[in-house]
Design goal:
The protein is an alpha+beta fold. It has one domain: Beta-clip-like, CATH 2.170.270. 27% of the residues are buried.
Length: 134
């Protein structure tokens, strides 16, 4: 669940992006997993999905890399956090559990919020190849 003002708009990085709707100081909590609002899909259940559903989950969700194989889950954000784009030098950082994101530097109002998918997403490499960002 997003905890700061934000909006989505055309991104210079990829398609649609998530942008700061307010100044965000370094260290501020920006996003936090909220059970009952956001949802999870068990990896074993994901494997049973039709290809079209798998592509949607890969595009908008992330496979939590903090758990061992067989116990991992795909996290799906119910709000616009799903439009967060990857950047090798992002302005936000993950707490290594995939459940909280903070500003790692001051972020100006109107600046695109970026994260490093490799910090939390087991499928980051696949996601970046699918989106042809390299």
């Amino acid at each position: 669940m997003m905890l700061v003002k934000n909006y989505i708009a055309k991104s210079k990085i990829h398609g649609i992006g998530l942008f700061a709707g307010e100044f965000i100081p370094k260290g501020k909590l920006i996003w936090e997993w909220k059970k009952g609002f956001d949802f999870k899909i068990k990896e074993k259940d994901f494997k049973k999905f039709p290809e079209s559903a798998k592509r949607w989950v890969l595009h908008y969700g992330y496979l939590d890399n903090s758990k061992p194989k067989g116990k991992r889950e795909y996290f799906i954000c119910a709000d616009d956090a799903r439009f967060w784009n990857h950047l090798n030098k992002p302005n936000t950082g993950d707490d290594k559990t995939g459940t909280k994101t903070i500003a790692i530097r001051d972020i100006k109002k109107g600046e695109e919020l970026t994260c490093d998918y490799f910090d939390f997403d087991e499928d980051a490499e696949i996601k970046l190849k699918i989106r042809d960002w390299r």
